[in-house]
Automatic annotation (TrEMBL):
<feature type="coiled-coil region">
    <location>
        <begin position="294"/>
        <end position="367"/>
    </location>
</feature>
<dbReference type="GO" id="GO:0008270">
    <property type="term" value="F:zinc ion binding"/>
</dbReference>
<keyword id="KW-0863">Zinc-finger</keyword>
<keyword id="KW-0175">Coiled coil</keyword>
<feature type="domain" description="RING-type">
    <location>
        <begin position="25"/>
        <end position="64"/>
    </location>
</feature>
<feature type="coiled-coil region">
    <location>
        <begin position="135"/>
        <end position="258"/>
    </location>
</feature>
<dbReference type="InterPro" id="IPR013083">
    <property type="entry name" value="Znf_RING/FYVE/PHD"/>
</dbReference>
<keyword id="KW-0862">Zinc</keyword>
<protein>
    <recommendedName>
        <fullName>RING-type domain-containing protein</fullName>
    </recommendedName>
</protein>
<dbReference type="InterPro" id="IPR001841">
    <property type="entry name" value="Znf_RING"/>
</dbReference>
<keyword id="KW-0479">Metal-binding</keyword>
Amino acid sequence: MGIEAEIYDKENNQILTGLKDDIICPICCAVLQDPMLLDCCSGHICSPCLSDVRKSFKNCPLCRKAKYNAIKSRFMMSFCSKIQLVCPVDGCNTAVPYLEFDKHKKRCLELSMQKMTLKSHAEISARNEMLSSLFEASKNKIKKQKKQISSLEAKICCKDEKIVSMEKMYNDQKELLKIIRKDHKELSDKKIVLEERYSEVKKENFEYEKEARTRNETETSALNKSLTKELEELKMKIRDDESRRRDQKKQIATLEAKIRSNHDKTLSVEKMYHDVKGKLAALTKKKSYVEDCLHELKKNYSKYRKEAEQHIADLEETIEFSDKDALGWKNGFYTQLHDCKILKEENEKYKKLLEQKIRENFKLQQNHSHCKEQA
């Protein structure tokens, strides 16, 4: 390794920069130490740097030739002995001759180490005093923090009890929500059954109405045709046989009475048909009323379910929840559940009423068919 120092110009009392490149080792970039001359390229290199290079690299470190020799450079040694180097030790900055630089640097380093030892001892004593004061302050702070920790632990125990009670209340509300969902599913299934039954009844009534109208028209037309034919035959017989005119008149009167009777029966059947149609319309209105009730029930159920879920979310997010407020909310929830049960009972009531009207409609259909058979 070379000498790490600046070159001093004694005449101008300043550090040289132009001459520095001539006496710098190209390996360590420091002032040449024990300079060696390379015969292959006339370059100069430090003796320690040359020893290090030869251990790992056989060629010349400057021109890369395979064969080279290195000898001590007397010219460079005499040239360096005429210059002075500035001591790099902190606080010294003394200009020392090249040949005496190593001894001076060692002596400066020893003095610097002694100064640093005294300075570090004073710093350590001051630091110990500061650490002792900090230790006392931290000790007092730890005592205060222990008191705060004990008070916080007491608060945490209280909060844990509240959390346990809230979790129990949350589980109860969860069970109630399951019951409400189950009731809603049952109501939905019953509504589907009622709608299917209503569609079947409506379809049967339409088919029966169509069949009754067709049968009535067919029978009336056939009866009128047969009576008209008989009347024509009687008239022809009257023309053919004047002697039987009186008997034929009696027969005609009898047939006309039958026609009037059949006409009256036809009117009564049509009246019964209109009555059945009116009752069917009333049943349709009642069915729409039942559907409105079911819709209202579903709406109220959705409302109650949302409120219950909202209350459960509030229970999960909020710990500060007093027993009085929890009891009031619980009573309100049970009131809403009671209202839901009342609506369910009304739905059952309207369901029974609809079944009763369906039975009455069926009886009217039987009476109508019986009247048609009599006609």
